[in-house]
Amino acid sequence: MEVNWLPEQVLDYIIVPLHEHLAPILDRLATIELKMQEFDEMQQKMRRFEEMEAKLQHLEAVETRMLQLEASLQRALGTFLPRVEQVLEGMEDSPSISARSSTNRGASNAPVRESVIEAAKVGDIESIQHFISQGAHQNEFDASMENALFHAVRNGHIEAVKVLLEAGIDANAVNIREQTSLMLAVHAGHKDIAEALLEHGANIDSDDDEGATAIWYASSTGHSDIVEMLIKKGASIDFGQSYEDPFTTTLEVAAQNGYAETVKTILTVGSGWFVSDLEDALCITDSPDVVWAIARAIPHEFWGEVGARAVMSATRDGRCNALEAMLQAGAPTTQRNMNGLTPLHCASSHENTAAILSLVVNGADIEASDNKGRTPLHLAAIHGKEKSVRALLAKQANRHAIDKRGRTPFDAATSDSVRDLLDDVIR
């Protein structure tokens, strides 16, 4: 039976009831939209709070560093003032340099350097022995408060080092930076000199004014054989930290500089490492060999969790070489942060196309959505990362994906060039 509706009846029986039914829904949607705006404002306040907290932590770190420098200065004054007095007394009691030189020339034809330090620099044993006979080796220092031993060590003159040590020169003397001769020896890779210093009482765990020890110096320059020797002689591995960067341990400095063999040595010869130590080292290197060395040392049951965090870190920092090695070692790509962002989200927003391709090839979900329903393509569009958009589209990312605000990547795009890439008509 056909019903003929009059306009008034349509209004009374359909439009009005429909409006009455939809009105609460529309009000609810408006409330939700308002709550979302409030939530966004709250997140912005949280970000500002986090920035202020980071600045406060930086100021606290600066204050701590200033206190450490003050303590170092006090230690230096306590060390050097008696030494300066000793030098001055020695100058009063000893003949002048010119007098010593002329006396020597009269006694023999052997060349004598101007000072024991100059002789040590070139490894002139005969001149060194001459000055030793006059006691000059004990109380002569340069402007950096370095004695002859420092200069013999720095220039790799092992025989000169031995002569000075046998004459009783202080093997634990420190320069103006509180560095010892042992630190200089291991940093330069002079293993034989380092062994000679240790045999004559050099303190293996002395630290400089930044807290770095001999094994830290050896690790920072990749001298694996010296690192092994120091560990076997009792050097404390976890003692080798720097006050300037308190998170750079002996293991981390080797990893950061890409010294895979040194990392292996520290992990195999040393002991007492925690999984967190290995993760910290993994999160600062860009060396595939270092990644593999650390990955093999991490117990299998921890690798998934540790590897996932390391992947996120490498993606965020743009360490693509390390990222590729982590993925090859089986690290997962599904780790999310508190905002629901995956490594692929991070790579896309930072325009790290190499990381995007590596992650997708290794199984990353290209349509994964964060807490706001945004896919990696959404973030690439929001941040105006044209190269990221191209890379994601090449891997068949869905340009029609909808976030929780009902936006497609095209709607969220902030640049015309990105909109052009996402526009189906222009495609």
From TrEMBL:
| SUPFAM superfamilies according to UniProt | Ankyrin repeat
Bias (Polar residues) occurs at: 95-107
Q: Which SMART domains match?
A: ANK
The record's InterPro entries line, in alphabetical order, gives: Ankyrin_rpt, Ankyrin_rpt-contain_sf, Dendritic_Spine_Reg/Scaffold
Q: Supply the alphabetized keyword list.
A: ANK repeat, Coiled coil, Repeat
Spans of the ANK repeats are: 144-176, 177-209, 210-242, 339-371, 372-404
Lineage top rank: taxon: Eukaryota
Q: Does the keyword Coiled coil apply?
A: yes
Q: Pfam families under this entry?
A: Ank (PF00023), Ank_2 (PF12796)
Segments carrying the region annotation (Disordered) are: 92-112
Which residues lie in coiled coils?
32-79
Q: What is this protein called?
A: Uncharacterized protein
